[in-house]
Amino acid sequence: MAVDTMAGGGERVSSWRRLGSMREAGLIAIILALCVIMTFASPHFLTLGNFRAMLMSFSVEGIVVVGMTVLLIVGGIDLAVGSVVCFAMVFAGSLFLLGLDPWSASLLGILASAAIGAIMGFFVTVVGLNHFITSLAAMVIVRGLCLIITKGTPLSLFTMPPEFKAVGQGTFYGVPYVILIFIAVVVVFDFLLRRATAFRKVFYTGSNEKAAQYSGIKTKQVKFWVTVMCSTLSGVAGVIYMSRFGAATPTFGVGMELNIIAAAVIGGASLNGGSGTILGAILGIALLSVVASSLILLDVSVYWQDMIKGCILLAAVSIDHFLHKRKA
């Protein structure tokens, strides 16, 4: 009996140790600590309006983070996500102004975003370029397309029907549709990453591409479709932003890739591929959202805000480097 009790106690201790070693647990602790500090630092932090604003902010970016996380796991990276988000807005908005209904225009905007991902995937898997260079070129080209389509002028889309605006502005029993869409995307992709055989190939490819090839996995196809998926989710986010703001600005999303990559890496997605979780990435974007809200409430200059975000990204990449080095 004593042995069983000791064994049971040992299992509980081991479970707590595993929980404590989880990166997600550390992120949760940091977020909670920051929230407690800000509660005393600013009377406006612990309010329903502020938390709603933070949730709305990171929910749409969180959709893009999901795609970026899966791409990082496979060993890639996408610097063009901010430009693709803007392109989906601009392309769909332009089609709407030409007379197409907003639903069809949005669908075409998402498909166009997927096509951009397919082009990047082609250059990575067929031509042989790496994700960094390919996505860097795509970032500049797609941003240029946004400026060409709009001629540098924001598109006013306030004539959109109320049922479409509801996607970005409406609520369901008090919960914004944006948050519900975000939760649905997170749940689906988290389940697929954990349980679906096809998505396990993403981890195998990112961990050791040659070994994955020898085991029969078509790694180039895996990389191609993950690249398309990341751009598609960016297109979905762009359409939601269009519905939410009722406008399409050609400069929207500049610098967004910084937040997205930082959130994924902070959450445990390795730049070397092979590791990462959806939950960790979402906690990463939540942490950045709390930090951004805190800096605004403390009246910190926007220039300092960018510097602080950059320092957080550098710290996250450094931690990832040392963890990967230790594991190796």
Automatic annotation (TrEMBL):
<feature type="transmembrane region" description="Helical">
    <location>
        <begin position="79"/>
        <end position="100"/>
    </location>
</feature>
<feature type="transmembrane region" description="Helical">
    <location>
        <begin position="132"/>
        <end position="150"/>
    </location>
</feature>
<dbReference type="InterPro" id="IPR001851">
    <property type="entry name" value="ABC_transp_permease"/>
</dbReference>
<keyword id="KW-1003">Cell membrane</keyword>
<dbReference type="GO" id="GO:0022857">
    <property type="term" value="F:transmembrane transporter activity"/>
</dbReference>
<feature type="transmembrane region" description="Helical">
    <location>
        <begin position="51"/>
        <end position="74"/>
    </location>
</feature>
<keyword id="KW-0812">Transmembrane</keyword>
<dbReference type="GO" id="GO:0005886">
    <property type="term" value="C:plasma membrane"/>
</dbReference>
<dbReference type="Pfam" id="PF02653">
    <property type="entry name" value="BPD_transp_2"/>
</dbReference>
<feature type="transmembrane region" description="Helical">
    <location>
        <begin position="278"/>
        <end position="297"/>
    </location>
</feature>
<feature type="transmembrane region" description="Helical">
    <location>
        <begin position="170"/>
        <end position="193"/>
    </location>
</feature>
<feature type="transmembrane region" description="Helical">
    <location>
        <begin position="106"/>
        <end position="125"/>
    </location>
</feature>
<keyword id="KW-1133">Transmembrane helix</keyword>
<protein>
    <submittedName>
        <fullName>ABC transporter permease</fullName>
    </submittedName>
</protein>
<feature type="transmembrane region" description="Helical">
    <location>
        <begin position="25"/>
        <end position="45"/>
    </location>
</feature>
<keyword id="KW-0472">Membrane</keyword>
<feature type="transmembrane region" description="Helical">
    <location>
        <begin position="224"/>
        <end position="242"/>
    </location>
</feature>
